[in-house]
Structure formats: C-alpha cells, structure tokens
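Protocol step 4 of 6.
Sequence for Sulfhydryl oxidase (Rhynchospora pubera) entered exactly as in the expression construct, tag removed. Do not edit the line below.
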Amino acid sequence: MSDNPLTPLINTFTSISRSLQTHLSRFLIAPDSATTDLTVSSLTTNPLHPLSSVSLGTDTPVTAPPIKEKEVKPLTKEEFGRATWTLLHTIAAQYPDQPTRQQRRDAKELMAILSRMYPCKECQDHFKEILKANPVQAGSQEELSQWLCHVHNVVNRSLGKLIFPCQRVNARWGKFDCKDRSCDLDNTSEIDIKL
Ligand SMILES: Cc1cc2nc3c(=O)[nH]c(=O)nc-3n(C[C@H](O)[C@H](O)[C@H](O)COP(=O)(O)OP(=O)(O)OC[C@H]3O[C@@H](n4cnc5c(N)ncnc54)[C@H](O)[C@@H]3O)c2cc1C
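Step 5 output, structure tokens:
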C-alpha cells in the first residue's frame, strides 16, 4: 500500500487515459494506409465518406456521379489553339469603336501576357516574334479585329493553313446578340483593379 495521498487520483487519471487511447485508435488512420484509402473512386463509392453524397436538406441523398476517364482527358494543342483564337476574336468583335486609354492598354497587355503564358513554348516564342514585327493595333474595334486577323494569318501561314479573308472577319466573329445592349463595352467605367 502506497503512502502517497495522490495515488487514487493518479490511478483514476491513468485509467481514463488508457480508455481514451483504446477508443481513439479506432478513428486514427495509419499514415501508410492513407494514400490507398483516399482514391477518387473511394470518394464516390465509400458510403461513409463525407463527399460521397450531398444532402439537400431532404431525406434523399444525391450521390455524385462516378468520374469517367474519358471526361478528364487533357486538351490537345489544336483544341487549345482553337479555343484561344475564339476567345481573342470574340473579344475583338465586342471591343468598342472608341476605346478608353485603359481598354487600349488592356488589349496590348492581353497579347503580351499571352505571349508569356500561352502553354506551348514553340507557340509562345513564335507569338513573341509576331508581336515584335506587328505591334498591337487597338485604336478601335475595326483596328483590333483586322490586326488580330492579320496575326492569326501569320500563324496560319507558318503552319501551312489557309489564309482567312480579313474583310470577312466581322461576319465570322460578330457581336453578341445581348439583351438590352448588356454586353456593350462602350460605356465601361474606368475601374482599375489592383492585384
Ligand atoms: C497566339 C497563338 C499562337 C499559336 N502558335 C502556334 C504555333 O506556333 N504552332 C502550332 O502548332 N500551333 C500554334 N497555335 C495553334 C494554331 O494556331 C491553331 O489554333 C491550331 O492548329 C488549330 O487550328 P485550326 O485549323 O482548327 O483553326 P484555328 O487556326 O484555331 O482557327 C479557328 C477558326 O478561326 C477562323 N480563322 C482562321 N483564321 C482566321 C483569321 N486569320 N482571322 C479570323 N478568323 C480566322 C476559322 O473559322 C477557324 O476555323 C497558336 C495559337 C495561338 C492562339
């Protein structure tokens, strides 16, 4: 028998601590098993995973559809090129007839950024050369669209593609048919977004 007056207290604490350890160990995941357990398929098939279903506040949970391999295939260089030209020609078609100084700066910046961030080294280098030889013309909608058509044709020529007739550029990439002129950029206010 111990003479220490704190012995009952220490024994109680030790017993609680052991009991907690036993219970908590059931919830802990061993570090080397974590990677195999947390695959995408287990997120969607494991009914206990918090992301496996989303409750909409009713009794019926909505199960996430399984991710098919076909859907996550990355874009090809050609698909990305088409998407980028679509973006650029569409922007040029909506560009105002009388752009503000900020809008003219933005058009030039957009092309400069593209020549640095376009995710294809060969295309970046080529586009940098094209921009040097053909500085961005962004004084009006007509000017920007025609300039873009011209530089697109420079790329087309280097790839052995057909030359697009630039007098038809507005017919190919026309203005949006937006309700109440809500896409109109002519009255854009000069709000400078600081990054
Ligand atoms: C800035 C930039 C640089 C690129 N550089 C390279 C490169 O160095 N090497 C490479 O392999 N690929 C490059 N690409 C991709 C390449 O230009 C094409 O996008 C890709 O090869 C797919 O071509 P496509 O025939 O489907 O039509 P795209 O050239 O993508 O054109 C899309 C559509 O635009 C229309 N169009 C075509 N020419 C014009 C024009 N002059 N003006 C207006 N509309 C037009 C046509 O309706 C056409 O179907 C570049 C893309 C961009 C955006």
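Step 6, annotate. The chain is about 50% helix and 5% strand.
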